[in-house]
Every structure is written in structure tokens, then in C-alpha cells.
Amino acid sequence: MNTVTKYSVSDAATLYKKSRATLYKDIKNGTLSRDHDGLIDFSELLRVYGEPFDTKHTKRIDTSSIQIQNTPEYTDKTVVELKNQINFLKRQLEKAEDREAQANARIDTLLTLIEMKPTVATEHIHQPKNEDIATDSQSEKVEPPTEQAPEEPKRYPVPEQVEAQPEPRGFWSRFFKPNG
Questions:
Q1: Res. 99: pLDDT tops 90
Q2: Which of 4, 61, 149, 174 has its CA 20 to 30 A from that of 71?
């Protein structure tokens, strides 16, 4: 039996039906490594790419983890597990619906608060009190109040200066001119 343990990049590319550029890229990235002589060890190719395509080996399947699915124990366990998952999903759906209802209630509350908030223009208008509204049918009609113009702020007269301020003195005049 003649097995080669080391391959050149070209031989490895034909063995695994990959381009040489792919192999060089993997070598450059560090995914695949070469020996000091430039050849690639077969164990390294197996580690990175798995079994080569040219080999006539059949792929092995680990049958120890596969259960026989036609047994009544398997179907009973599967049914119980699926029922548990359905119940779990129903509880999650109910919680989500509750959260949605609470969020909608909060939105409705906020919208009513926004609608009830008085605007700046309506705050200045005089609102009639219950006492001002006549309940007797013979009394005069109460006219709605008119909007008044805002009062201007009072102006206070500023007194003029009585004394004229002296002319400001420069830096050197403080030392050489007499006080005057």
C-alpha cells in the first residue's frame, strides 16, 4: 500500500478539488500550515478540509447517537416534549399580549393627557365661574369675554446726571498733572 504523507500545493489542490489560490490564501491566513520543505502534511489537510474526494472510503456515520424512532417510548417522549414546548410558547404569547395591552393603555393615557393640556392662548382668556353664569331664564345673556391685549410694562423715568463727569485722566497725567 503506497500512501503519500506529504503533498505539494498543486497536488493538494487536485486531491481536494480546490484552486491553488485558495490553498495559498489559507496558508497566508494561518488556517493551513506547510512544513519547512514547502510541502503540506496529509494530516494537516485532513484537519482543515476533511477527507479528500479521490479516496474511495465511504463516509462513516456514528450510529450510536441515532435512536430507533419507531419505538413507542420514543414517540411518547417526543409527544410529551412537544406538548411542553407548546405550553411554554403559549405562556410566552400571553405575556407578550399582556405587555402589549399595558403599552396601549399607557399610550392612551398619554394621549388623553396631551389633549387635556391647556394651550398658551386659552390660559389668558377669562374663564367664567359658575357664579357668573346666570341660571335664571329671565336674566341677561352673558356674553363671552373678549381677549384683552397684554399690558405693557410700566416705564420708570431715569434721572439725568446732575453733575458732569470729569474727563478721564491718562496714565502719565496722574503723575505729572496737578489734581484738579
A1: yes
A2: 61
